[in-house]
Amino acid sequence: xxxxxxxxxxxxxxxxxxxxxxxxxxxxxxxxxxxxxxxxxxxxxxxxxxxxxxxxxxxxxxxxxxxxxxxxxxxxxxxxxxxxxxxxxxxxxxxxxxxxxxxxxxxxxxxxxxxxxxxxxxxxxxxxxxxxxxxxxxxxxxxxxxxxxxxxxxxxxxxxxxxxxxxxxxxxxxxxxxxxxxxxxxxxxxxxxxxxxxxxxxxxxxxxxxxxxxxxxxxxxxxxxxxxxxxxxxxxxxxxxxxxxxxxxxxxxxxxxxxxxxxxxxxxxxxxxxxxxxxxxxxxxxxxxxxxxxxxxxxxxxxxxxxxxxxxxxxxxxxxxxxxxxxxxxxxxxxxxxxxxxxxxxxxxxxxxxxxxxxxxxxxxxxxxxxxxxxxxxxxxxxxxxxxxxxxxxxxxxxxxxxxxxxxxxxxxxxxxxxxxxxxxxxxxxxxxxxxxxxxxxxxxxxxxxxxxxxxxxxxxxxxxxxxxxxxxxxxxxxxxxxxxxxxxxxxxxxxxxxxxxxxxxxxxxxxxxxxxxxxxxxxxxxxxxxxxxxxxxxxxxxxxxxxxxxxxxxxxxxxxxxxxxxx
Length: 568
Ligand SMILES: CC(=O)/C=C/C=C(C)/C=C/C1=C(C)CCCC1(C)C
Ligand SMILES: CC(/C=C/C=O)=C\C=C\C=O
Ligand SMILES: [Fe+2]
What we know:
- The protein is mainly beta.
- The two termini are 24 Å apart.
């Protein structure tokens, strides 16, 4: 059991964000100040003494009972069904403290796991509609010497600050649009949409550590790229792209390594995608190449994309952005997107070095948020014959977007409603053949026909690999509820499940010096049904639980994480 002496706790307090533009980062960094116009959030301005020296129980009890009024859990939308902790807004703006650990955290695990996600889904009495609408909640698990310090904090985006100051929605979120009261303001709204001024900067999807050490929270709008401090979770400022590439949106999941940041910029005017690359220590993206769409009328949604050692794979999914839907105030069944099966689906393969397209094939229709990994397959002479691409594939069925509406997530009655998903494996031939293939990489029953929120050992990014970690399903359920280790060679899955709970993305951290692909730990944060929650560590190889630590109170569901290793 870890010792419980060193901790600090901030209970329902508000710390003003930095007021100057000086950010402790290399001089090449360019971040603007995030000082709110009015000095801060309207939710809670009370500053209470940080807990210290007292017993942990006292601090935890304080944290658990002093939720500011604005953070009361939001209603489920159905009087008979109690909302699961996973879909209940975070109860206060921030908290930090050491957790008691059951089991053993490996001593080699030294660093911080950060997880981002949309954890605040209401403004006063007004409830947001969709999982993806919520304001970003950043959570940290800091591991050192077998001990664990936990903390969470709201990201101080302009959208969050404006909403809390005015107690109303001020920017366009995934499904929510601020109300317009007159025709004249509607015209203004259109201008603000086209210029990007009204788009959200609510960086609620993921978090990445750049090769130069900066930690950036991201969403699908480019302006929603926000630099944070991985220790304090402070919002440091906007990540400003200094190039003149323009555009308003990008993939929520760039590919980030020690040497580069690669992402896709969809072009809604001339349907296509720019593949861009940014070097560590700079804020300037440079164009690698461009892909024109083969189907129309707009590019497919690119929440994520895969790479191999030499190629960037640009997916053209028939779930396409829709300019018309962007302009609508009320959400459409597919929000800002439209399903165009008649336009077909394609995979384009671009050479990273030259920007040339080496293959562009039609593939079976598919729906995915998350690509898992990709690699080059070679013949006996070492020539690359195919590119293999794996993703969490929703059986070409867009209803998953609707299932992620909060009302649906909050109204689970025991009836199985989660649509089937699988590990979709594409084979893209590089010999000029016009078609690629898509099949299940393993029997989906191995993981309960649920499949999303994946990670791999990052050392295998773009390379032939054997293991993926993801969330599967123990049915009946309305959301993926297992942690699953997938063996793509033996076509088997091993599932971890705790009845009634919802675990977040299993995140793999390799043991330093490991030679086996699955030598490491898998971290997840688990939300219990009735207000509780805990962090769990599984052994990457056996997939057995090795440690867990209860949170002072349950946290809402979160999406994606990053690992920031300790520097010493
Ligand atoms: C949380 C998550 O996974 C996805 C979030 C997506 C967002 C916030 C998308 C926002 C958008 C707009 C506000 C307008 C333009 C289109 C689009 C990128 C979908
Ligand atoms: C949580 C999710 C899908 C679950 C489906 O079973 C998708 C999240 C997408 C954004 O990161
Ligand atoms: Fe995602």
